[in-house]
Structures are given as C-alpha cells and as structure tokens.
Write a structure and sequence with these properties.
Blueprint lengths: L13 H5 L1 H8 L1 H38 L3 H39 L8 H42 L2 H28 L3 H4 L7 H10 L1 H29 L1 H11 L8 H9 L6 H31 L10
Helix pairs in contact: 2-3, 3-4, 3-11, 3-12, 4-5, 4-12, 5-6, 6-9, 9-12, 10-11
Length: about 325
C-alpha cells in the first residue's frame, strides 16, 4: 500500500468495508502487528493498574467502614470516584493518539507514531461531532420510543390477553427500530474519523458520502457490532465462567444488605486483584485485548473505506 495523500478511487461496498482491515494487514503486516501488540500491552497495563488501584482503595475503605470510621471510609470513597474520573480523563488523549496512528496507516498507508497536531486535532473534532450527533439522536429516539411504549401499554391495559402480547411485540419492535435508527444516523457521520487523517477535512463531503451509502454503512456497522458483541461475550464469558462461583458468592454477599452505601466498594474489594495477582490478571486480559484490537480493525476499515470513497476536490463537480 502506497502513501495515499492522493488516494486512488475506492468504491464503497459492504464486503470491501468489512474486509479493508485485512487488506491493510496484507499490505503492511509488520506495522499492523506492531500496532496490535502495542495496543494490547498499553491497555493491559492500564487495565491491570486500574484494577489494582481500585481494589486497594476499596479494601482500605471497606476496612475503615467495618471498623466504624465513617469519615475515613467516606474520604476513601471520594478518592475512589476521583481516581476513576482522573484515569478516564488521562486515558482520553492516549486513545485519540492511538486512533490517529491507526487511521493514518489505514488512510495513507504510512506507519508513524506521530500523526501530527493537525491530524490529532481534526480527529478530536470528528469525535466531538460524533458524540454530539449520538447524544441528540439518542434523546430524540428515546423520547419517541417512550411515547410508543406508553401507547402500547395503554392499549394492553384496555384490551385482552392477545392485546398484551401484541403490546410486548410492539415494544420490542420499537426498541429494535430505535437501535437500528441510531446506528443508521451515526453511520452517516462514521467516515469523519478516518477522513480527519487524510490530510484534508471536508466535513460536508464526508457527511454527503455517508448519506449516499447509508444502507450499506448501516449493514456494515450492524455486522461489526454483532461480531464485537460475540467476541466480548465469548471472552468475558469464559472469564466469568472460570470464576463464576466467586462472582455469584460475592454478589450474594453484597446484596444481603442492599442499602449499604459501601456496596460498590465491597464489590471492588472482593473482585479486584491485589498486587500479587496482577500478573495473573494481565495474562487473562492479554488475549481479550488482542481479540478486541482485531475486531476494532474492522470498524476502522469501515470508516476508512467510506472516507476513501470520497471524490478528490479536483474531481468534484463545479
């Protein structure tokens, strides 16, 4: 794959979008494997560090609460919440940088650990646009679905048993249609992140390209989400199965007193690893993170294929 500052014409298709990540791998296997391994190591280290920190804070807080030191327990719970927010905030620039590195490879065929401030800035802007669209679409669809559910419940209460069954089916259908509608709306804007690393940033053109391919994009993203959920269910399901009894006993113990304000910290205290267990947690999470990285390549491929299907400025109609 050559540097795609002036990319060749790409035609967006569902198969081409879903397989574009594999195309990039075939062209630059060393770069892709380096990024996959780097992604895996970074996120495993961050996750294990976060688990250990939260576990230690939670255990100290629970110990203070059990000893009757409510003030110390409250202070530790605040530290727990602050640490969670701080880690999320500090992790955001790292995530943006990694996405910029990945998408530079996908869009321009160039492997670099520094995509430049301009590319990172455009990628950040595209993320803000996507988040705004998601929030607005979610609120509107949620409002419409809730109105539909209210009318379905009223119809069920005033009807027969068959009406109740029909109402349940209507509610399920509304939720499915709402979810599909949300994916369709977001898919129109899904080329923005990859296009941000193309060396130019035509927001209107990226949105117009998304509208032209909205059906294929919706199908592509739905298939991606199904695959992503399957990987998550299999990966974390295997972990949960291996420690199922411990998790069940922990939840049962905590829920014996559901009004205890320390319940969240008790869960973390019991389930999060200590320093001596950090290496075991890292070994367990490594294949999960690597599998997630492979699946995420498909999502990046969908965005990149859409962005590459945009006409060059010189090819646009006057």
């Amino acid at each position: 794959m050559t540097d795609m500052m002036t990319p060749p014409a790409h035609r967006f298709t569902v198969g081409g979008a879903l397989g574009f990540g594999l195309e990039v791998f075939r062209a630059r296997p060393g770069a892709v494997l380096t990024l996959l391994i780097g992604y895996t190591l970074i996120y495993v280290v961050m996750a294990v560090g976060q688990f250990v920190l939260f576990g230690e804070l939670a255990r100290t807080g629970v110990q203070a609460a059990d000893m009757g030191d409510a003030a110390e327990a409250y202070a530790l719970s605040l530290q727990f919440s602050s640490a969670s927010s701080l880690i999320s905030l500090l992790g955001l620039p790292l995530w943006i940088w990694m996405e910029a590195v990945w998408l530079t490879l996908f869009m321009r065929g160039r492997f670099t650990l520094w995509p430049g401030w301009a590319g990172i800035g455009r990628l950040t802007l595209s993320g803000l646009i996507l988040f705004g669209v998601y929030l607005a679409a979610f609120l509107v669809l949620f409002f419409v679905i809730m109105i539909g559910i209210v009318f379905a419940m009223l119809a069920a209460e005033s009807g027969t048993g068959d009406s109740a069954v029909a109402a349940v089916l209507v509610v399920i259908a509304l939720c499915l249609i709402g979810g599909l509608g949300l994916v369709a709306i977001l898919s129109v804007f899904s080329g923005l992140p990859a296009h941000a690393l193309s060396g130019r940033f035509d927001i209107g053109g990226a949105i117009r390209a998304g509208r032209r391919h909205v059906v294929g994009l919706t199908v592509s993203w739905v298939l991606f989400l199904i695959l992503y959920m399957l990987v998550m269910v299999v990966s974390y399901g295997a972990i949960a199965f291996s420690v199922g009894d411990q998790v069940a006993n922990t939840f049962e113990m905590v829920l014996q007193n559901p009004e205890d304000p320390m319940n969240t910290m008790r869960l973390y205290a019991l389930l999060m690893p200590g320093v001596d267990q950090a290496w075991i947690t890292a070994l367990v999470l490594t294949p999960v993170m690597f599998s997630t990285g492979l699946v995420m390549m498909i999502g990046r491929g969908i965005s990149a294929k859409l962005a590459l299907s945009m006409p060059n400025p010189s090819e646009k109609a006057p």
